[in-house]
C-alpha cells in the first residue's frame, strides 16, 4: 500500500519550521567558542601527560564528568569573549577531573547532587593548589555561574548547594580548612547540608555546573537491559553516515531475530518527519538510504534505548558509545569444525583467558577474476610509477661487510683483527667491504580488516575498495617479490567465530591469488587480537631476517561479546607485545580518522600511520616495504 503524502508533509514541514523560528532554539556558539573536535589532539596529550593514564575523551551531552579513564567534556565552550580563555576552561576541567575523588554515587537525587558538588568543589581546590595560575580563571567561571543563576523572571536559578559552594569558591579558592581534603568527605557533605537546609530551591534550577561536572557510578555504556528475546544478534548498518548527538547512558534492548520474521503488516511511508522511541513492536525495514531526508526528525529522538540486530540497513546514525559490558558472552559458534584456539588477554585481571577464542582459517573465493584486471587498468599510471621504483631498488647495491676482497676496507673488521692478533690468535682475513645486489630478506603478512566498518566511506571512497585496490597495485608492482608475501582478511562474530580469510599464502604465485581480492565483502566485527596471534604464528614459522605483520584497519577493536573499549585495546596491545617477543614488527595503516584515538594505545606511537586521504594507502605500503629492506 502506498500513500501520496507530499502536500501533507509540505504543510507539516512549514508549520514546524514556523514554530521553531518563532519560539526558537538557542543560538549557536559564537566565533570565539572553542570546539572539542578541533582541540582534541592537544588536550588529549595534556590529559595523558598530567595523569600518566591512557585517558580517552568522549563528548558529553551537557557538562560531562569523569568515569574511570574516560573524560567526558562539553562539545564546545563559549563562556568568554576571548577564545584563549575558553580554551583554558577546557584545561581547567581536565585538571579538575584528574584531581576528582572517584567515590560511590548515591541513588537518591538530592544526596547525589550534594556528593557531586562537594567532590567537585574539593577537586577544584586541589587543582588550584597544584596550578596556582588557574585560580583567577576558576573565579571568573564561578562569577559567570553566579551571574547566570540570579533569580529573575523565567531564569534558571542555581540550586542552594551550588550557590553556596560557588560563592565559597570565589572567596576561598586558595584554601578551605572546613571543606578541604583534610576533612573526610562524609563530614564535608554533612557540613554543606547543614548550611543550606533552610534555603529555598528555585522552581527552575540547574543540577549541573560546568565548573566540576558530574559523577558516574558505572561504565557509561551500560544500563538496565530490556530483554525482548534470546538469540545472538549484531551487525552494523552501512551507507550514508550522520553523526548523532552525544549520549552518556544508553539502555540496550536485546531483540529476538525470530520476531523480525513474524512482522505484522505496517504501511510503508516514504518520508519520516516525526519519530518516537522503540516500544517493543517490530516493523519491516525497506533498507533505503534516505537518512538525510530524515535527519531533523532523528535528531529529536532521545536515543536512550538502542537495539542490535543482523538486519542490514543502508544508513548510519553514528554515536561513539563505550560498550565495555553491553552484551553477554555469546555461546554459539557460527563456523563448522573446532577452529584453532588462542588465548585472550584480560587487562583488568592481568591474566590470559585460556583458549578463549577460536580462529577459523578459510580460503577466499576466486570467482571474480576480472576484478583485478579492471582495477589495475584504472590505475595503470600509478602502477607504472611503482614498477619503476622497484626497478631502482633491484639495481641498488648494498655494502656487505667482512668480505675476503672488495674496493673498500672494513674498519670494524680491521680493529677486530688487530685485537685478535695482539691477543696471540690468528685474525680473520675478511677485512673488506664489497657492494652486492641482495634480494630482500623480509617476510610480510598483510592483514586486511573485513569487518562491516570497512563498508563506510571516506572522501567518497569505500574503505574496503581502497584497501583491495592498494594491495593489488602494491603486489602487482613487486612482480616476483610479491610471491613471498602472505595476505589475509579478518572479521569476527563473537570469540567463537573469528574468521581468518586466506587471500594469498606466502610462496603462492601472486597472479593466481589476485583473483580472490575481488570477492571480498564486509562482514561481522573487528576482533583484532586473535587475527594478530594467528598471523604471528604463521610468520614465526618462516625464515627471514625481518618479519612484519601489516595491519590495514580503522583501529577500533570491537565485537558483540564485550570486546570493546579498554578490554579490546588491552588485548591488542598484549598481542603486539607477543609478536615483538618473537622478533615480529606489527605496523598499522589506518584510513579512518578516528583511528588516532585507539592506535597509539594499542601499538605505541611509532608503529602506525593515519592516512588523511584514502589514495595515500598504496604509497604508504610501498614506503613501509622500502624501510623494511633497509
Description of the molecule:
There is one protein chain. The protein is of the alpha/beta class and 630 residues long. The strands form eight sheets. The chain has an eight-stranded mixed beta sheet with strand order 13-14-22-21-18-23-24-25, sandwiched between helices. The longest helix is centred in the N-terminal third of the chain and has 22 residues, at 109-130. It is globular.
Number of strands: 25
Q: What general form does the structure show?
A: globular
**Helical residues, percent:** 25-40%
Q: What is the average of the pLDDT values?
A: 78
Distance between the termini: 67 Å
pLDDT < 50 stretches: 1-5, 218-238, 264-276, 323-333
Percentage beta strand: 15-25%
Q: Note the total helix count.
A: 18
Arrangement of strands in the largest sheet = 13-14-22-21-18-23-24-25
Describe the sheet with the most strands: 8 strands, mixed
Rg measurement, Å: 30 Å
SS class: alpha/beta
Précis, in short:
By secondary structure, this protein is α/β, with parallel strands linked by helices. It contains 18 helices and 25 strands.
Set down the secondary structure blueprint.
Elements: H1 6-23, E1 34-35, H2 36-51, E2 56-59, E3 65-67, E4 70-73, E5 76-77, H3 83-99, H4 109-130, H5 135-148, E6 157-158, H6 160-172, H7 185-196, E7 205-206, E8 214-215, E9 240-243, E10 251-254, H8 257-261, H9 291-299, E11 305-308, E12 315-318, E13 340-346, E14 351-363, H10 369-378, H11 380-394, E15 398-403, E16 408-409, H12 411-422, E17 432-436, E18 442-449, E19 457-458, E20 461-462, H13 463-478, E21 486-492, E22 498-504, H14 510-513, H15 528-540, E23 546-552, H16 565-581, E24 584-590, H17 599-603, E25 608-610, H18 617-629
Parallel strand pairs: 2-4, 3-8, 6-7, 9-12, 10-11, 14-22, 18-21, 18-23, 23-24, 24-25
Antiparallel strand pairs: 1-5, 3-4, 13-14, 15-17, 16-17, 19-20, 21-22
Amino acid at each position: 500500500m502506498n500513500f501520496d503524502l507530499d502536500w501533507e508533509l509540505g504543510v507539516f514541514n512549514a508549520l514546524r519550521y514556523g514554530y521553531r523560528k518563532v519560539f526558537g532554539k538557542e543560538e549557536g556558539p559564537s566565533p570565539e567558542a572553542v570546539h572539542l573536535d578541533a582541540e582534541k589532539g592537544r588536550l588529549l596529550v595534556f590529559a595523558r601527560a598530567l595523569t600518566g593514564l591512557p585517558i580517552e575523551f568522549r563528548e558529553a551531552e551537557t557538562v560531562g564528568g569523569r568515569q574511570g579513564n574516560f573524560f567526558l567534556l562539553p562539545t564546545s565552550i563559549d563562556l568568554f569573549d576571548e577564545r584563549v580563555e575558553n580554551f583554558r576552561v577546557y584545561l581547567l576541567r581536565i585538571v579538575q577531573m584528574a584531581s576528582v575523588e572517584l567515590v560511590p554515587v548515591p541513588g537518591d537525587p538530592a544526596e547525589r547532587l550534594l556528593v557531586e558538588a562537594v567532590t567537585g568543589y574539593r577537586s577544584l581546590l586541589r587543582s588550584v593548589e597544584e596550578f596556582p595560575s588557574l585560580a583567577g580563571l576558576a573565579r571568573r567561571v564561578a562569577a559567570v555561574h553566579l551571574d547566570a543563576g540570579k533569580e529573575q523572571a523565567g531564569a534558571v536559578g542555581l540550586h542552594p548547594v551550588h550557590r553556596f559552594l560557588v560563592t565559597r569558591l570565589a572567596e576561598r579558592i586558595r584554601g578551605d580548612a572546613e571543606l578541604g581534603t583534610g576533612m573526610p568527605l562524609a563530614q564535608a557533605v554533612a557540613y554543606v547540608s547543614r548550611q543550606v537546609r533552610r534555603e529555598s530551591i528555585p522552581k527552575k534550577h540547574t543540577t549541573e555546573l560546568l565548573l566540576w561536572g558530574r559523577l558516574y557510578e558505572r561504565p557509561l555504556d551500560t544500563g538496565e537491559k530490556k530483554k525482548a528475546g534470546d538469540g545472538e544478534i549484531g551487525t552494523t548498518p552501512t551507507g550514508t553516515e550522520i553523526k548523532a548527538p552525544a549520549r552518556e547512558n544508553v539502555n540496550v534492548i536485546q531483540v529476538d531475530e525470530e520476531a523480525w520474521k513474524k512482522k505484522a503488516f505496517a504501511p510503508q511511508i516514504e518520508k519520516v518527519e516525526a519519530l518516537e522511541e522503540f516500544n517493543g513492536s517490530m516493523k519491516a525495514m525497506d533498507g533505503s538510504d534516505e537518512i538525510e531526508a530524515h535527519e531533523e526528525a532523528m535528531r529529536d529522538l532521545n536515543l536512550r534505548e538502542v537495539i542490535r540486530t543482523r538486519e542490514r540497513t543502508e544508513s548510519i546514525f553514528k554515536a561513539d558509545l563505550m560498550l565495555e559490558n553491553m552484551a553477554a558472552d555469546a555461546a554459539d559458534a557460527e563456523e563448522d569444525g573446532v577452529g584453532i584456539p588462542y588465548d585472550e588477554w584480560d587487562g583488568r585481571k592481568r591474566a590470559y583467558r585460556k583458549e578463549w577464542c577460536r580462529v577459523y582459517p578459510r580460503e577466499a573465493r576466486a570467482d571474480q577474476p576480472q576484478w583485478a584486471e579492471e582495477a589495475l587498468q584504472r590505475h595503470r599510471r600509478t602502477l607504472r610509477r611503482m614498477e619503476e621504483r622497484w626497478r631502482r631498488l633491484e639495481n641498488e647495491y648494498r655494502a656487505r661487510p667482512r668480505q675476503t676482497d672488495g674496493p673498500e676496507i672494513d674498519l670494524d673488521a680491521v680493529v677486530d683483527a688487530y685485537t685478535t692478533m695482539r691477543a696471540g690468535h690468528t685474525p680473520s682475513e675478511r677485512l673488506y667491504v664489497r657492494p652486492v645486489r641482495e634480494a630482500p630478506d623480509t617476510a610480510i603478512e598483510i592483514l586486511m580488516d573485513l569487518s562491516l566498518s570497512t563498508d563506510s566511506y571516506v572522501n567518497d571512497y569505500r574503505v574496503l575498495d581502497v584497501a583491495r585496490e592498494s594491495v593489488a597495485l602494491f603486489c602487482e608492482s613487486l612482480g616476483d617479490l610479491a610471491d613471498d608475501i602472505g595476505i589475509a582478511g579478518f572479521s569476527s562474530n563473537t570469540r567463537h567465530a573469528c574468521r581468518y580469510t586466506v587471500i594469498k599464502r606466502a610462496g603462492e604465485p601472486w597472479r593466481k591469488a589476485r583473483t580472490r581480492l575481488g570477492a571480498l565483502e564486509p562482514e561481522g566485527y573487528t576482533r583484532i587480537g586473535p587475527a594478530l596471534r594467528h598471523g604471528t604464528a604463521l610468520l614465526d614459522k618462516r625464515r627471514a631476517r625481518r618479519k612484519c605483520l601489516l595491519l590495514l584497519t580503522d583501529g577500533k577493536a570491537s565485537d558483540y561479546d564485550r570486546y570493546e573499549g579498554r578490554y579490546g585495546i588491552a588485548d591488542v596491545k598484549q598481542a603486539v607485545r607477543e609478536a615483538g617477543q618473537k622478533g615480529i614488527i606489527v605496523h598499522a595503516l589506518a584510513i579512518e580518522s578516528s583511528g588516532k584515538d585507539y592506535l597509539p594505545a594499542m601499538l605505541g606511537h611509532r608503529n602506525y600511520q593515519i592516512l588523511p586521504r584514502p589514495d595515500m594507502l598504496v604509497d604508504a605500503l610501498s614506503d613501509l616495504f622500502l624501510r623494511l629492506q633497509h
